[in-house]
Design brief:
- The structure is a homodimer.
- In chain A, 26% of the residues lie in helices and 23% in strands.
- Chain A is α/β, with parallel strands linked by helices.
- Chain A is globular and about 50 Å long.
């Protein structure tokens, strides 16, 4: 509710990296039948599996629309907290608060949300319930929130916790987000709200990603100075050029601390496409492309780092084990848990997109 | 979520008296236009005043339906926590959890709720959202809840925290509540869930009370062995006989500890009646009697005891000060705060009915 009188940065706040300790993970129960097939039932099963995996090491809270409360409460294990809260869909990464901390207090940054593009190319209308989620979560947690005058989704940024933010020009400079702000003004807002020194811009996100290229579907910060990106070996695939340019951008930059950035690679699943059976199970809508043959924006980079554990999507039997092996090497001492995630992918994102961490102070 | 494997009583739990320390008070924002006049706006103002009074000494959380969330958040001071939660109306005493504790843990007893009489003589339909409130609150607080196989509202009982419960035959034995249970079976359920030794039955509650005579509108426990009741000096008033019989029942009983019960008296306001202007502002409904001239079930006994403070309803300028004086005498060292409460009364209850305490462990 309360706002910070000065900028969070000026007050000594910074956004921790995802690899830092978590007090909990919040998620949102999927139920819209125009995005999730078969009345969202297969997606709900997948979300349950993700929540159960996370809850092995970190407490999970699931927000649920009133109409689905009893169903969610009965299906989820009792150690997962279920809280009634209205949302238009279930992308907690994008609608939840981006927490910053000064080491003593935790404050949730509450971005403006317009469903990935508002009336220009947003995915649904209205989106007001989604937009209210971040402040409601902060209120339940007893934390202050700070409304930021910037249209932004949590999945369009990655931080290293030491002053560096990674994002994409495709998304943050898209005319459907903040057309009245220059790149410098957007950088200023990000720096002031998240306590940053430097923004590293990739040209674009994953091929055919309806979020306008969220960074979290192509890159993940492993730790300060080290990232992992989705790589494509097929030079005839449209992803090839995108990954190549991301790699080049990262290798020619230094981070906020002046470090060269070590770039690791994850294989690209598929390519994967929506089947006719899958498309037929989805209610018609004006916003979302869910037709048979539509290419899915599938990426192993869309994993979650939480306390002592990596939860990553199983997407393609051909590459799942290779991805696990790479993640195990990148995160020594972490348990690497794979969860079948095609049903999440069908909705337009993956495990990172449906989770949001609350940092431990 | 979790249920107790044995009865709370067998596990060493008891319901504290209202005079014991509180961790917080929960309330529910009024919005139904078929109960609260003028779109519930005057009632909302009254609820705000009650919340602000309580929050001087005890943290307050207000649950709000999604459609009214922003309005409630903007109108309430920022130190009052606002949580989205669906409810059919706003009687937190009756729909919230009745907490029991063993000194180490707190467990919410989650009674079945049927809107004060279900399909027999209930006040509205449906009531499923109300019925889900208790468990949802416990879940948010991180407490276990225990569903009790008994239709009961929190306002129909008062405990002294030392094994005694006060209630009315009019309500608990009403055919619209638990017609399949005998009086002994109802006593057994109450004793096992609330850790009691003795139930003291008054014949009936306040005259023309649409709750079928909730005890909290005619009596309040001051402390173990001591109660205060609404008294009526006019022997031609229907309340006269009711109060007289309550007094006699109390004076001829001893409590769970074998004490004689000291009975204090509060004056009866009015009698008060709904005006034509008030009735005209209420949407028509099938369940509730809100016609001009309808007698209101007004009582000063419907106050809240919270940490170091009594919050009591201002109802009738002729008796408000006398009531304050009596309460000040009964609760030495407590601040006695009066809040204008006619708008709450018009909805069918008062300050005790719209609040529910969470005991401090």
């Amino acid at each position: 509710m309360n706002n910070l009188s000065n900028s969070p940065k000026a007050n000594g706040f910074r956004m921790p990296g995802e690899h830092e300790p978590h007090a909990g993970i919040w998620m949102a129960w999927p139920d819209r039948a125009d995005n999730w097939r078969n009345g969202a039932k297969p997606a709900q099963e997948a979300f349950i599996k993700v929540a159960m995996a996370i809850s092995k090491t970190t407490p999970v809270t699931m927000i649920v629309n009133e109409s689905q409360y009893q169903n969610a409460r009965h299906r989820l294990p009792s150690d997962i907290k279920v809280v009634e809260m209205s949302a238009d869909d279930s992308w907690m990464r994008d609608i939840g608060p981006s927490y910053v901390t000064d080491g003593k207090e935790r404050v949730g940054i509450d971005w403006e949300f317009n469903a990935w593009g508002g009336l220009v190319d947003g995915l649904y209308y209205p989106w007001n319930k989604d937009d209210e989620v971040a402040a409601k979560i902060c209120e339940i947690l007893g934390d202050r929130s700070c409304r930021a005058p910037l249209i932004l989704e949590g999945g369009s940024i990655h931080t290293d916790g030491e002053g560096t933010l990674y994002t994409t020009e495709e998304c943050l400079l898209h005319p459907s987000r903040n057309p009245d702000l220059t790149k410098e003004e957007i950088e200023h807002q990000l720096k002031e709200h998240l306590g940053l020194e430097k923004i590293i811009w990739l040209p674009s996100g994953l091929y055919n990603d309806e979020t306008n290229g969220h960074v979290d579907n192509i890159l993940h910060v492993v730790k300060p100075g080290e990232v992992v990106i989705t790589w494509c070996n097929d030079e005839f695939d449209p992803q090839y050029e995108i990954s190549r340019k991301a790699y080049d951008a990262l290798c020619t930059e230094t981070d906020a601390k002046g470090r060269n950035i070590v770039v690791h690679k994850l294989p690209m699943p598929g390519p994967l496409f929506i089947t006719e059976e899958e498309a037929n199970g989805i209610d018609a809508s004006n916003g979302m492309e869910r037709t048979p043959g539509e290419r899915l924006a599938a990426s192993y980079a869309n994993f979650l780092i939480t306390n002592n554990q990596i939860v990553y999507p199983l997407l393609d039997a051909k590459y799942d084990e290779e991805a696990r092996h790479i993640l195990s090497e990148l995160f020594p001492g972490y348990e690497v848990t794979g969860v079948k995630a095609r049903e999440i992918l069908l909705g337009g994102g993956n495990i990172h997109c449906i989770t949001q961490q609350i940092p431990k102070i």
